[in-house]
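Lecture notes, part 5. Sequence design as translation. It can be helpful to think of inverse folding as translation between two languages: the language of shapes and the language of residues. The source text, in structure tokens, appears below.
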């Protein structure tokens, strides 16, 4: 993959994966996280969920951890209004610092592996701390061709029971889950489609054209089976 082309397509987008503010609020309510707590957004991207966390937890101190420098700058700009209560650092989400009462990770833990990532985060959690992460999931029933093609590059995808088994293998317990399907994906793909349409009018070179085609094909597959392509938002705690 040409990463320069990828990040050209994915610059100036509101978010870098499916999700919405309601997902964040569900996790905070279910975990009972409130007050002047330390919270981490691991793999925060351009800061969409970090901003929601900061709004929902007005007394908390938040740290966003992100590898890509462009996303770091976007997240810092987005969260500048919160002052020094929100810090965004360029670094590896496998080593997020801490300890935190909550580690939030939207659509990024699979880069580490669910079991591997959770195991590594034990030392980053305060006693009684929580992890909320979203992970690709297969829904019950026969998988249409569009679903199989959509997830072809992630052969490790499994169903809810399979995700729970990976959580258990890390020594954690599942405390709740919520499916991310439909509208939260539109919140990601609609701006991405607009970005693709804009860049197609700029006479893109071959590398950028390939990146545009790849993302457009992904969006087309999602639209063909939008009710059956999902993430599971998992709320877990160490045993």
């Amino acid at each position: 993959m040409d990463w320069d082309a990828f990040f050209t397509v994915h610059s100036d987008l509101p978010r870098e994966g499916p999700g919405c503010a309601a997902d964040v609020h569900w996790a905070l309510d279910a975990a009972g996280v409130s007050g002047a707590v330390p919270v981490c957004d691991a793999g925060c991207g351009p800061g969409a969920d970090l901003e929601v966390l900061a709004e929902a937890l007005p007394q908390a101190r938040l740290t966003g951890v992100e590898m890509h420098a462009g996303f770091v700058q976007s997240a810092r700009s987005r969260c500048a209004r919160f002052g020094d209560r929100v810090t965004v650092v360029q670094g590896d989400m496998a080593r997020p610092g801490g300890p935190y009462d909550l580690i939030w990770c939207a659509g990024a833990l699979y880069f580490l592996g669910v079991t591997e990532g959770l195991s590594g985060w034990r030392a980053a959690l305060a006693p009684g701390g929580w992890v909320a992460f979203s992970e690709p999931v297969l829904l019950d029933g026969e998988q249409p061709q569009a679903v199989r093609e959509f997830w072809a590059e992630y052969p490790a995808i499994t169903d809810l029971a399979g995700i729970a088994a990976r959580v258990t293998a890390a020594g954690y317990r599942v405390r709740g889950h919520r499916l991310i399907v439909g509208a939260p994906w539109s919140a990601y793909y609609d701006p991405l489609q607009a970005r693709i349409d804009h860049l197609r009018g700029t006479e893109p070179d071959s590398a950028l054209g390939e990146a545009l085609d790849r993302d457009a094909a992904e969006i087309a597959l999602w639209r063909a089976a939008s009710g059956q392509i999902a993430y599971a938002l998992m709320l877990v705690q160490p045993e």
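The translated text above is only one of many valid answers, since several sequences can fold into similar shapes. The beta strands are 38-42, 61-66, 86-90, 100-105, 125-137, 172-180, 230-238.
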